[in-house]
Amino acid sequence: MSFSGMVKKELSGHEDSARHCQIAEMAALLSGSGDLERDEEGRAFLVFHSENETVTRKCFTILKKTFNIEEAIFVRDVYRQKRGRVYLLRISPEHLTEICQAARLVPDEERRTLNVTDIALITRRQCCKRAFIRGAFLASGSISDPNKGYHFEIVCTEEERAEQLQKIICSFEIDARIVKRRNSYVVYVKEGAQIVDLLAVMGAGIALMDLENIRILKEMRNTVNRVVNCETANINKTVNAAVKQAEDIRLIERTVGFESLNEGLAEMAALRLQFPEATLKELGMMLSPQVGKSGVNHRLRKLSEIAQELRENEEELL
User: Using CA of residue 302, residue 304, residue 310, residue 311, what is the dihedral sign?
Assistant: First the structure.
């Protein structure tokens, strides 16, 4: 099962005891994945559809507890081309008006969908906002595998609905954004810590802990990689500097010899050739008397300047 499927399974088991929260969650579910159809007599009825069986059962449970209309609900699963198995929940025409009035839903005959007309009313409490976000995610949301990346999204068919959902999510200080994707509007969150907060808002505690554990491991790996890369860069820098110093010293030895240098520089040149991998501190401790890192660095710079002058003289002779 995918990480998104595990989150939906956990949220499907979350039950609100308050009727106002149940209505808010149901409004999000039905407006997100509900279709209007007509029977042989022309009466409108509602069909809730989902590729997730547990989400369909969640919608069934809310309708049963809130309206006690179990006898008017029929569940069946069908196969649709390219989508695989889809679970359908059919609500009879007799209860459509009752449900729409309670959830502030208005049928859109042209699009054959349900739209929430007074979202501020059904989400006036913080607990109802949480329930609405949870229902919207169960209906048309997904979350990527955190091992691969951080991405949370809920797909909306209408721009207005996407803006309403964005506003509710942002009320929890979560930076939700909207992007248009083909004929849909996607409300999304990309930052890992904010997705963790969003899971907490919806009530997915287990998924939250799983994601946090993955985030911690990834951050530890990134920290170790940064340290290793930094150490590697420092080692490369030191090695390259030592190689350049050795080249300069050999040039001096080959052309004018160490006897042309003063005692301090000659001693430094001999030590660098003898210990090419030694650090500045180690070289300074080998000198007699001992010299600090800055003193060693000064002598090596002086040797490099002498070597550069010798190179320039050779070029002039040519």
Answer: negative
Instruction: Give CA–CA dist 255/277, Å, rounded.
Output: 24
Within 13 Å and on the Cβ side, how many CA atoms surround 7?
31
Domain with CATH 3.10.28.10 in the chain: 3-203
Query: Each residue of 178-220: pLDDT tens digit?
Result: 999 988 999 999 998 999 999 999 999 999 999 999 988 888 8
Owner of token pair 């069986």: 53
- pLDDT digit string, tens, across residues 256-267: 888 888 988 888
Q: What is the DSSP pairing of strand 84-91 with strand 184-189?
A: unpaired
Q: Which amino acid is residue 150, in one-letter code?
A: Y
Q: What is the DSSP string of 240-267?
A: HHHHHHHHHHHHHHHHT-GGGS-HHHHH
State whether residue 48 is helix, strand or coil: strand
Distances from the Cα of 113 to the Cαs of 44, 158, 279, in angstroms? 11, 11, 74
CA distance 20 to 219: 40
What does the alpha-carbon distance between residue 196 and residue 231 come to, in Å, rounded to a whole number? 33
Task: Give dist(CA 231, CA 225) in Å, integer.
Answer: 10
Report how far residue 30's alpha carbon sits from residue 38's, in angstroms, rounded to the nearest whole number: 17
**What are the start-end ranges of the H helices in the chain?**
3-12, 19-33, 53-67, 96-103, 119-122, 126-140, 159-170, 192-202, 205-255, 263-274, 280-286, 293-317
In the block, residue with structure tokens 């949220």: 11
Tokens of 112: 């054959």
Q: What kind of architecture, by CATH, is found in domain 3-203?
A: Roll (3.10)
Q: Looking at the DSSP assignment, which residues form a beta bridge with residue 91?
A: 46, 73
Measured between alpha carbons, how far is 297 from 292 in angstroms, rounded to an integer?
Answer: 9
Q: What's at 250, amino acid-wise?
A: R
Which residues of the chain carry a pLDDT beneath 70?
70-84, 110, 315-318
Report the alpha-carbon distance of residue 139 to residue 212 in Å, rounded. Answer: 24
| DSSP letter (8 states) at residue 153 | E
Measured CA to CA, the distance from residue 95 to residue 102 in angstroms comes to: 11
